[in-house]
Design goal:
3 helices, alpha+beta
C-alpha cells in the first residue's frame, strides 16, 4: 500500500515541476485526492492533504526567501557598478567623483588628412616601451591641444590659444554615462556630472574631429599660452536647414551635458 502511495506522490512531484502558476497547490491537491481516493479511506486522504499543504507552504516560503536573496544581490551588483568619463577642459573632477588622472588634452594636427578623430587625455607621467627618438614621417602623430575661442562670446574668448587640460573621473554606483548635446540639464532619471559647451575642429580644416563636451568653466595649463596649434577646439554652433529651426537657432552656440544613470 505504502509503495503505491509513494509512486503516486513521486508522480505528483513531476506534475509540480511542470506547473508554474499560482494555483499549483490546488491542482496538486486535487490530483492527489483523485489518485488516492481509490486506495485510501477518506480520513487518510484528508490527513495526507493537510500534510501536503504544510509541505507546499514550506516550499513557497523557501522560494520567496531565495527570490529575496536574488533581488538583494542584484541591488548590490548595481551599487558596485562604476563608470569612467573624461572631463575635458578641467584639471579636477566634480565633488561626487574620484580623480583617476589629471592630464593634457592631445590629438592629431588640425590640418592633417590622415588625422585621428578622437581626442586623448594624456597623463602627466608617461611611461615608455621600445622606442627610437627622432622625427620619423612613417608614424601617427600626437600633439597638444589649444582653445580656438577668439570669436566666442563672453569669458571663453580669454581662453584663446591656451592649452587644454583634462581629467579622467571615476563615478561609483553608476552603470552608464552619456554626453547629451544641446542640453545643460539631464533628463529624468539621469544625474548631471558636468555641463559645458560643445566643441570640435574647424569646419574647413582637413582633419576630422569628434564633438567634445568642454566644461562650462574651462581651466588652462600653466605656461601653455602660445600659438603652437595641434588639435584645435572651436565652439560648435547650429546651422539651420536639415537641422530644424525652431527649436534650434541659426548661429547659436551649442551647450552640452554629461549625465550618468544608476
Amino acid at each position: 500500500m505504502m509503495s503505491a502511495v509513494l509512486v503516486i506522490v513521486i508522480s505528483a512531484m513531476g506534475v509540480w515541476a511542470e506547473i508554474s502558476n499560482g494555483s499549483c497547490k490546488d491542482m496538486l491537491q486535487g490530483y492527489l485526492t483523485g489518485q488516492l481516493s481509490s486506495a485510501l479511506g477518506a480520513y487518510q486522504v484528508e490527513a495526507l492533504r493537510r500534510e501536503f499543504k504544510s509541505f507546499t507552504d514550506q516550499i513557497e516560503k523557501s522560494v520567496k526567501a531565495i527570490k529575496e536573496k536574488i533581488d538583494v544581490q542584484e541591488i548590490r551588483e548595481t551599487k558596485n557598478n562604476s563608470i569612467v568619463y573624461t572631463r575635458w577642459g578641467k584639471k579636477t573632477c566634480p565633488s561626487n567623483a574620484e580623480l583617476v588622472q589629471s592630464g593634457y588634452t592631445g590629438g592629431s594636427w588640425y590640418d592633417h588628412k590622415g588625422a585621428a578623430v578622437d581626442p586623448l587625455c594624456l597623463p602627466r607621467d608617461p611611461e615608455w616601451g621600445i622606442y627610437s627618438d627622432g622625427d620619423n614621417g612613417g608614424r601617427a602623430f600626437v600633439h597638444g591641444a589649444e582653445y580656438q575661442t577668439h570669436s566666442s562670446p563672453g569669458y571663453l574668448r580669454t581662453l584663446y590659444q591656451h592649452d587644454v587640460p583634462c581629467a579622467v573621473c571615476l563615478r561609483r554606483n553608476r552603470s552608464v554615462v552619456k554626453m547629451f548635446p544641446a542640453r545643460k540639464t539631464c533628463y529624468k532619471g539621469w544625474k548631471l556630472e558636468f555641463h559645458g559647451y560643445l566643441m570640435a575642429g574647424y569646419h574647413d580644416h582637413q582633419a576630422g574631429t569628434m564633438y567634445t563636451c568642454v566644461d562650462e568653466h574651462p581651466d588652462t595649463l600653466h605656461g601653455g599660452h602660445a600659438d603652437k596649434n595641434g588639435r584645435l577646439f572651436y565652439q560648435a554652433e547650429a546651422r539651420c536647414g536639415s537641422l530644424k529651426c525652431p527649436p534650434y537657432v541659426e548661429g547659436r552656440e551649442l551647450v552640452c551635458a554629461v549625465c550618468s544613470k544608476e
